[in-house]
What does this fold into?
Amino acid sequence: MPARADSSRDLISEDGALDRATWVVQRVAWAVAAVLLAAALAGLLGRGPLGGRAVTSADGSISVEYDRYFRADAVSDVRVTRLDPVGENTTSPVTLYLRGDGLIHSLQSAFLAPSPIASRAVGDAVELDFAPGTRPSPTVPLLLRLKVEDPRVATLLFSSSPDFAPASTAEVNLVVYP
It folds into this structure.
């Protein structure tokens, strides 16, 4: 009988150093998976509490809510609210200017609601005109659905002035990952 125990021991080799190295690799992999799961749940890889952001221009005329992180070829919503300065005529059309560092041209598709009555390319910017009843306001925010083709870190500027004066411009920083 003891000869048989020795022969089975010969079939199963033991390597303490290899076993410890395997254990360490497994524990490191579990830790990395836990960190990625926590980041995803927190919104660092998409929608979630840490992924959403809101910015307002210095003069308070434009407010933008958006998801800071989103995947390439995925749709991301950007909500723009335009606040009228005191004394501004609310029955006249309003113009909103949008500029992005090459992002405007790489947009696969964009959806605007409400729809502008006119839109024009002005240099590297887009000018959007809205009718008085459909203008972006606290009660009627502009919904811009973006779909970007390629991964990048990009900046979008929303402004109420054509020269993108810093006081009237809200800067949106996006991270588009593969």
User: Anything to note?
Assistant: Helices lie at 2-11, 16-42, 103-106. Residues 71 and 113 are 22 Å apart (CA to CA). The radius of gyration is 27 Å. The chain has two domains: 2-42, 52-177.
